[in-house]
Design a protein that fits this description.
This protein is of the alpha/beta class and 323 residues long. It has 11 helices and 11 strands.
């Protein structure tokens, strides 16, 4: 098993949580590791946790692949994102994606990046998911959050709340349902998986009184799924779903970012893992951001990163077992 790990935005907590997970042995226990990072700054993160800088040796159990050189600005400071840190983060993601596409690593685990720093560096992608889809040359991807048996896929991702209804289409929702079903049935081997769709509007629209998206978009997508023989139910009112049905479904499709992630982060207590569906390689990530406010202090918890790497190793192991 060979796992690629990106160090994320060098001004955030990414480098230190990767270094901490290596230093305490939890990441090396999962297989051979390749860290994609700016070497000088990642070396500093290693020293901060009492570890030696990693060798640039692909045969080593844990090694570093230095990203395209970016001169470190004299005013670089942990906790302060910039065009430089965005460029480094993007280079790490691109190098890891190339390694996965060429078969050099079995999975990619990503530390957090800053969308603002990416924009300052000239990248239009709003986040990892869209960047990886572009690098892999695929158009249909989805973001699923996993915490044990809790799995939540998002129908829309990084869009303003005011645009969610206009971005929600039958074709797009059909694609998310298909990717979720493929993950459950093929990746996880769940026979005849059961999926739930949350309504977009309060009370799932209440028969059109609070919006008609459930009637126009969600119900036709549910009927299309039924025509394929898939067990998809809903739309359910989102405000009560996770209280009433936590164990009734193998996955839930939420209509927008916070609708899905607020319950996930409350129920999973920081241990949820972000999985990108639809890529030609396995990618997992932490469920938190760059935490610039504590970057460089050695206070960051590597738990979510380790959980992401553990899930990557588990799922990649299934793929290898089937091969």
């Amino acid at each position: 098993m060979r796992i690629g790990i990106t160090a994320g935005d060098p001004a955030g907590i990414g480098p230190e949580i990767v270094a901490a997970g290596i230093a305490d042995g939890r990441l090396p226990a999962l297989g051979r590791l390749v860290v994609f990072a700016e070497p000088t700054l990642f070396g500093a993160a290693c020293r901060q946790v009492g570890a030696e800088p990693l060798p640039d040796d692909p045969e080593a159990a844990v090694s570093i692949t230095a990203v395209e050189p970016h001169p470190i600005p004299t005013d670089f400071t942990p906790g302060t994102p910039s065009a430089f840190t965005g460029a480094v983060a993007a280079a790490c993601v691109a190098a890891a994606a190339r390694a996965a596409l060429s078969g050099e690593v079995d999975a990619v685990v990503t530390a957090p990046i800053s969308k603002t720093a990416l924009r300052d560096a000239g990248f239009s992608h709003p986040g990892h998911t869209e960047m990886l889809a572009d690098l892999a040359g695929v158009s249909a991807v989805a973001m699923m959050f996993v915490a044990g048996d809790l799995r939540v896929t998002l129908a829309t991702i990084h869009v303003p709340l005011a645009e969610v209804a206009s971005r929600l289409t039958s074709d797009g929702l059909d694609s998310v349902i298909r990717l979720t079903h493929e993950c459950l049935a093929e990746q996880l081997g769940i026979p005849d998986p059961r999926m739930a769709l949350l309504g977009l509007n309060p009370h799932a629209g209440e028969e059109g009184r609070f919006g008609d998206e459930e009637r126009r978009i969600l119900r036709p997508s549910i009927e299309a799924a039924h025509a394929r023989g898939w067990r998809v139910e809903g739309p359910f009112p989102a405000d009560s779903f996770f209280l009433r049905h936590p164990d009734d479904f193998d996955a839930v499709v939420a209509m927008y970012h916070d609708q899905g992630l607020i319950p996930v982060k409350l129920l999973a207590a920081g241990e949820a893992v972000n999985v990108t569906l639809g890529l030609p390689f396995l990618r997992t990530s932490v469920d938190h951001g760059t935490a610039f406010d504590i970057a460089g202090r050695g206070e960051a918890d590597a738990g979510s990163l380790v959980a992401a790497a553990q899930l990557a190793a588990e799922w990649a192991g299934r793929d290898r077992g089937r091969g």
